[in-house]
Request: fold
Amino acid sequence: MNTALKQWKEAATLILAAGRRLGADSLSSRTPPESGAAARSSRFDYDVLLLKRSAKSSFMPNAYVFPGGMVDSADFSSDWLDVFRSFLNCPGFGLRNVSQPAETRPPIFGTNRLKLGSPIPGEVALRICAVRETFEESGVLLVVPKKEEERLINGFQDTFCSRHHSEHKLRGDELSRWRALVNQNPSNFIRMCRELEVLPNIWALHEWANWLTPSGRYGRTRFDTAFFMCCLQEMPSALEDDKEIVRFQWSTPPEVLQSYQARQLWIAPPQFYELSRMCRFPLLNDLHSFAHQRATEGCDQWLPVVVLQDERHISLLPGDKLYPLDSSSRAEGDHTKDSPLEDPPDASELHRIVMSDPYTTTLQITVKPKYNHIPPVTEPALAHISKSQL
Reply:
């Protein structure tokens, strides 16, 4: 854990996309789309998992979020060296190298954890955190049997990382027992992996984004969050924990956006942005291939700078004409502005999220994404766009 951070707590989030299966148990967990959303989402062959936070949560109560949470010291424990013993001679425990220059990497990925006292690379620990939190919050367990170690090692550069993944199957009672133990103490996740002889499937998680919480928007706690993408072959079973999470649902990206605009649920700007980006991929195979291929490029650190214009809250993002230039210090300072936004004469470079009210959000984007990423669909009506139209 990076104890040098003063304003942010490190966290990891997992965008979990899964192909649909026809079983009644999975269909019953889906949110029935409105008639308009049904037509727009008919091209989509996958759903994304969203969890509703408790009304008692101190951070974004009642919001629908991707699974994830704060990094724990157990995620950086040296005990993981024994669990991953067969991978210690593989650079980064077998994770692929990122081509982004080290000096431009977001600190959450680029910080030398060994200097902070942990032998576990940050990119490994963050993925462990995402897998653990997903298990705690939703019951979905993304692990692989240790007996597959040799195939994993031999397949890193071959087909293993280029196909979808499946959840690990445990008996219901065994799954519930371990989930309760991990919720009580994150270090029990290490114990669970040892006793069940499984490995957190860190290789199924693809680096996707890095969002930081702006000042004063969602309470006092601010997070520096690594976003990962994972694509599963079929929808796993999920169950809310009745503590932090009170409901879960599987829906297509356009269905979620339609429900948000209809004021049936609330999502934060990062979720709105990333779901709009996923609207570019109606097919799970295309989403998975893009996420897998792009992940080695790296990503930007995005700290939204919130300003006011005509009673609208506008979140400026890196690349926008008005985004602060002092990027080297923006993660330590408070750049939220109370003064109205005044666009310069030439405002062609736009990268912003515009909120007229909590349920009315639009994206204004004219800049090209860095690191071979893809821009979001900027109009809800285009959420059914096909790949051939890109």
Residues 122-138 form the longest helix (17 residues). The longest strand covers residues 8-19. Residues 8-297 form a domain with the Nucleoside Triphosphate Pyrophosphohydrolase fold (CATH 3.90.79.10). The CA atoms of residues 280 and 390 lie 8 Å apart.
